[in-house]
Amino acid sequence: MAQHRPVPRKRSRQRRQRRRDATLRRWWLLLGIATLAVIAIALLGPRTTLSPDPVRPLSMAQARASNAAVPIVRRRAAAPYRFRGGPAARAQAADCLATAALYEVGNDSRGQRAVMQVVLNRVRRPGFPKTVCGVVYQGAARVTGCQFSFTCDRSFARRPQHSGWASARRRARRALSGGVFADVGRATHYHADWVVPYWRDSLVKVGRVGPHLFYERGGRPPARPSSLSR
Q1: 47-66: per-residue pLDDT in tens?
Q2: Sheet holding 212-216, edge to edge
Q3: d(CA 63, CA 30)
Q4: Residue 132's closest CA among 142, 119, 141, 143?
Q5: Could you tell me if 102 and 168 are in contact, meaning their C-beta atoms sit under 8 angstroms apart?
């Protein structure tokens, strides 16, 4: 009778190693084939180039026509704002409001009240500074990103002296004491009617004062006409 002789232990380990090596080579081969297939599809298959929407400046007439096509949705007026600081802080807040109003719209009394209302609306909304002067000068220290254009070019450092300051400060003190300009609702954004800012179609148009259009966050904006600029 023939006797079974055990395979030496060293030879058994070598066989197992060869099987593992063969399995590993197969996996690497499959991975290489899959990689080549992906590259071939990317290079030879149909390609779609995604490019941003073309943006070209609008003329003043085109911008005004585009803005006029967006309907005004009347919203409820803002709640009265009551300033809680002391006399010095109140005087500073009134000065910031008056400065913003004068530099944004000049001596137009309704326009000034509208700008002041926007500033106070921002103070009470998340995402904005919690003080009047903080809202007015937000981003002024950066090269870009200021919220009110007069702070970008530092024109407020060359503040003219004329009688308009007294009336602007009176309107500012009235706004800080609860006076509400209802025509712009709770608007937090506005722009002149001869431009179409990129954010226009994401907000709700709630009012117009002179050449300025006012917008509010919240709710679903009405269907917008397509525009050439965002």
Answers
A1: 333 333 444 588 999 999 99
A2: 189-192, 212-216, 204-209
A3: 58
A4: 119
A5: yes
In this prediction, what percent of the chain has a pLDDT beyond 90? 53
Q: Could you tell me the two tokens for 210?
A: 């002179």
Cα–Cα distance measured from residue 43 to residue 45, given in angstroms and rounded to the nearest whole number: 6
Nearest to 72 by CA among 199, 167, 211, 214: 214
pLDDT (tens digit per residue) in 125-160: 999 999 999 999 887 666 556 677 777 766 656 655
Structure token pair of residue 46: 């149909």
Of the options 3.40.50.620, 3.40.50.1820, 2.30.30.40, 1.10.10.2520, the CATH number for the domain spanning 79-182: 1.10.10.2520
Closest CA to 171 of 96, 97, 87, 78: 97
| Among 108, 70, 111, 76, CA closest to 227 | 70
